[in-house]
Amino acid sequence: MINLAILASHNGSNLDAINEAIQTNKLDAKISVIISNNNDANVLKKAKELSIDSFVVNQKTASVPDEKIAEILETYQCDCVVLSGYMKKLSTQITESFKIINSHPALLPKYGGSGMYGRFVHEAVIANKESKSGVSIHFVNEHYDEGEIILQKELVLSQDETVESLERKIKELEKQAVVEALEICLK
Ligand code: GRF
Known about the structure:
By secondary structure, this protein is α/β, with parallel strands linked by helices. It has helices spanning 14-23, 42-49, 65-75, 92-95, 118-127, 163-185; strands spanning 2-7, 29-36, 53-56, 80-83, 100-104, 132-139, 149-156.
């Protein structure tokens, strides 16, 4: 059994997919702790509903937030950390000490890097008239979106694709991709 941590700034959309995979015995894991930098984050409500311990860690709650995060991850003996829309860059203290994976809503190395998140990614994909986009699940290092790719899933854009429709499709694809990536890295 593997202990997982989820770090999220808002919805933590991948939490539901991971939790479902655990409940249906697809993943031999436990979500041990959820950490957010945002005390209004929806993911904290979900943590309560699922009775998962959660913490808010930011400049207001800790003098060095990443040190506090590392302390929590160690206390909960986390084997793997999943970033689900976590908007803060992690220090090397964390990236070098823990196995961390992130879900990026595009086919890296395209549309990655600073400022490329959420709708901005889909806006750029549509503005550039790309014929396909997708999801990349990758390990996290100290550079935005540059860690080793674990897997990618592609989709073909429709003729009348909008930012909203693409975002919806990618979020669905992401749910499968993150579970498959966890299956791969937890083997
Ligand atoms: C995911 O869709 C992923 O692409 C990116 O952040 C999104 C999750 O954010 N890394 P949220 O769960 O909607 O807050």
